[in-house]
From TrEMBL:
Protein name: receptor protein-tyrosine kinase
Pfam family name, one: Ephrin_lbd
Record keywords: ATP-binding, Glycoprotein, Kinase, Membrane, Nucleotide-binding, Receptor, Transferase, Transmembrane, Transmembrane helix, Tyrosine-protein kinase
A GO CC term attached to the entry: dendrite
Domain of life: Eukaryota
Topology of the protein relative to the lipid bilayer: Single-pass membrane protein
Subcellular location: Membrane
Keyword Nucleotide-binding: yes
Cell wall biogenesis/degradation keyword on record: no
Primary localization: membrane
Segments forming domain Eph LBD: 1-170
Molecular function terms from GO: ATP binding; transmembrane-ephrin receptor activity
């Protein structure tokens, strides 16, 4: 997880355990006995690296409100995920934004499983993993922000990633690495370039990159040029030719007779040419 900026005396960086009881550093907050909570945790600036849509995987634990004695009705088992686009670093510990503006809300994140004091005492971890995506992105980078408004929770890790279709050779054409589109349902067109010794036929060749980073819907194709043969649809190589020795004329009487002169022993058989009388 990127080194975050936390609002003082709210989120705390502490040592904790993952589901395998390995010691890890986490960020936690648990101010459930005080109403009107508004606690923010902000990542450092994240460069989007040309991506149009970003995915965020969050691993976290949440305390079951019903397992807390004398807790007020303001106790929550959810938190909010926000992002903010920008072209440069703008937030520090002294200048970070500690309110909903100017962030854009991605979603309210709910726990599928929560733990009680009995679970915690027995070191039974109930880790939740949630993935959310957002876009389109147009600036150089962005910040992620996590808003707690009354939960007792730990944020174990945050993984930020994007999806892309890898460079590929298909139908005797090379397609470049292509970023997925701004929406999860987007199809991005990638133009193909014929491999060496191949030429385009039919229509201009292209593939579509879908939102999961997979190639689909091939259109058009390239084929090997005359004199070249295909190799697994990824290469065009020159056709192998046998050694042919010339026909030598021998004059006998009135008409010539063409005789075949056998090739020297070169380890391969030459193309046979029949003797004949012209």
């Amino acid at each position: 997880m990127c080194a975050p900026v936390a609002r003082p005396v709210q989120w705390e960086e502490v040592s904790g355990y993952d589901e395998n009881l390995n010691t890890i550093r986490t960020y936690q907050v648990c101010n459930v006995f005080e109403p009107n909570q508004n606690n923010w945790l902000l990542t450092t600036f994240i460069n989007r690296r040309g991506a149009h849509r970003i995915y965020t995987e969050m691993r976290f634990t949440v305390r079951d409100c019903s397992s807390l004695p004398n807790v007020p009705g303001s106790c929550k088992e959810t938190f909010n995920l926000y992002y903010y686009e920008t072209d440069s670093v703008i937030a520090t510990k002294k200048s970070a934004f500690w309110s909903e503006a100017p962030y854009l809300k991605v979603d309210t994140i709910a726990a599928d499983e929560s733990f009680s004091q009995v679970d915690f005492g027995g070191r039974l971890m109930k880790v939740n993993t949630e993935v959310r995506s957002f876009g389109p992105l147009t600036r150089n980078g962005f910040y992620l922000a996590f808003q707690d408004y009354g939960a007792c929770m730990s944020l174990l890790s945050v993984r930020v990633f994007f999806k892309k279709c890898p460079s590929i050779v298909q139908n005797f054409a090379v397609f470049p690495e292509t970023m997925t589109g701004a929406e999860s349902t987007s199809l991005v067109i990638a133009r193909g370039t014929c491999i060496p010794n191949a030429e385009e036929v039919d229509v201009p060749i292209k593939l579509y990159c879908n939102g999961d980073g997979e190639w689909m819907v091939p259109i058009g194709r390239c084929t090997c040029k005359p004199g070249y043969e295909a190799e697994n649809s990824v290469a065009c190589k020159g056709k192998s030719k046998g050694l042919v020795r010339p026909l030598l004329p021998v004059h006998l009487g009135q008409g010539p007779i063409f005789e075949f002169s056998p090739p020297p022993a070169l380890g391969q058989k030459g193309t046979e040419v029949p003797n004949g009388l012209l």
